[in-house]
Amino acid sequence: DAGITQSPRHKVTETGTPVTLRCHQTENHRYMYWYRQDPGHGLRLIHYSYGVKDTDKGEVSDGYSVSRSKTEDFLLTLESATSSQTSVYFCAISEFYVSGNTIYFGEGSWLTVV
Amino acid sequence: KNEVEQSPQNLTAQEGEFITINCSYSVGISALHWLQQHPGGGIVSLFMLSSGKKKHGRLIATINIQEKHSSLHITASHPRDSAVYICAVSFITQGGSEKLVFGKGTKLTVNP
Q1: CB nearest to A42's CB, from B33, B97, B105
Q2: Is A89 on the interface with B (CB under 8 A)?
C-alpha cells in the first residue's frame, strides 16, 4: 500500500470555525491533490500542488486554501467553515514515469459542519 | 477543458453476468485510470492505461486513443464487485503540470 495518510479522519465542527485537514505522504510524489466527494457530483478538485510551494486552484476552490511547505505534507484549510462544506475529502498523490503515471488516494476525511 | 463522461451512471446485474462500463473524454491524455470505491471505503486504482488492453483476474480494461474512449469489463460478475467505478484521465496543462479529471462514477450493484 502507498504511504498516504489523512488526518483527521472524522471531524464535526461549527459554522464559522477554521478547519485544517492534513495529507501526509511517504512516496516522494510531486503531485498532491485535494478533492471533495458529494452525492451526484463525484470527485471534484479543490486545489492541487505540483511541487513545494507550487499550488493551483481546482474547480471548487472558493472557501478553501492550501499550503505545501514540504514534499510530504499538503494542508487544506477551510478559513471559516460553512454547512455547504460538509463533505468527504480525499487526498491523492501522483507521479509521472516514462511508462505512465501512478495515483494513490488517502482513506478520506469525513467533515460535518453544523 | 477536458470533460470525462461515464455511462451508465447506475448498473444492476445478476451474479455471473458480463458487465461493461464506458468512459469517454474530450482532449488528448497521457493516461487513463480506472478506480474502484466500495461503499464507505477508500478509492483504489485498478488499471492505468495509455494504450491497448490490460487484464487482471476477471477485470479487463481497454482504451481506444483515436476514439477517446475506454471500457472496463467484468466477467462472471460477483456481489463483491458491487462498488462505484470511476474513470479518471490525466493530461498535461499548458503550464506543464499534470491534472487529473474524474468522471462522476458508475454505481454497480451485483445481486446474488
Answers
A1: B105
A2: no
pLDDT band at A110 (very low <50, low <70, confident <90, very high): very high
pLDDT tops 70 at residue B73: yes
DSSP for chain B, written as a single string: ---EEEE-SEEEEETT--EEEEEEESS--SEEEEEEE-TT--EEEEEEESSEEEEETTEEEEEETTTTEEEEEESS--GGG-EEEEEEEEEE-TTS-EEEEE---EEEEEE-
Task: Decide if pLDDT at A98 tops 80.
Answer: no
Residue A23 in contact with partner chain B when CB distance is under 8 A: no
CA torsion, ordered B96, A69, A82, B9, to nearest 10 deg? 40
A45 to chain B: closest CA residue: B101
HSE of B50 in the Cβ direction (CA atoms, 13 Å)?
12
* pLDDT reported for residue B30: 82
Identify the residue among B98, B104, B106 best suited for mutation to test binding to A, counting A beta carbons within 10 A and taking the highest. B98
Residues 6+ apart with CB under 8 A from B30: A96, A100, A101, B50, B90, B91, B92, B98
